[in-house]
Amino acid sequence: MSAKPTIVFVPGAGHTAEVWNKVIALLEAQHFKCIPVTLPSTLSNPSATFFDDIKAVQDPIISEMSQGRDVVVVVHSYGGAVGCSAVKGLTRPKQDSTSPATETKGHVIGIASMASGFGPSGMTFADALGGKLPPSWNVDEETGFAVILAPPRETFYHDLPVEEGEYWVGKITKQAARPFMHPEGREYSYAGWMDVPVWYLATTVDQALPYEAQKHMVQMARDAGGDVTVREVESSHSPMLSKPLETAKFIEDAAASFVGRVG
């Protein structure tokens, strides 16, 4: 097995894989293999499904596993629902917590989550939020897209320099609403955070997912039996952009912890 796991990055709603570029550059300098994923639901296609997003994450994971590499899945915001569901069946069975020396197949060994939640199996993203989207989002029934109601600069990037914040506002894509709400998603949603250890980066000045809500969700996950280690960063909803050094160090430390459990 490779000494360092491959890291698969899953962005949030309306965001491209480009949001991970700063962090990836730092981690690649530490000799991590990094694979950013583009979610189909962010590509201006209102017909994209939750399963489409899951498969986009599973494909690179399975490819890496088949080459004998363990994988850490890094998720942000809505990407947490996708990434956690994508690890179903791809983790090491709990009764086999250590890998035999002769094993050549890799596994997902952990999830590094930031500014995200812990959805239960069998529920859509909206189900897990009480049947509706967060207050900052709404569904345009005519177009099939989820629309950001709150000012995105203040909601996602308030701690970035003005020019950089506006750049990222301009990069927000049309997000299909179907993966959030369509009942078909219940068939594929999965609490993968129950199957592997999770490191969670709480964003303490987050205006999209308030810090207190994050702490509440972490406690609920722990109460349900999840193995969750929490770190904090003074960041908006987008720590990979505003605090890339701290975010990369968080991921590096999480990966080392996960490897230590199976090595």
From TrEMBL:
GO molecular function: hydrolase activity
Keyword Hydrolase annotated: yes
InterPro entries, per database record: AB_hydrolase_1, AB_hydrolase_fold, Sec-Metab_Biosynth_Hydrolase
TM helices/strands, residue ranges: none
Domain AB hydrolase-1 per the UniProt entry, residue ranges: 7-249
Key words, A-Z: Hydrolase
Protein name: Alpha/beta-hydrolase
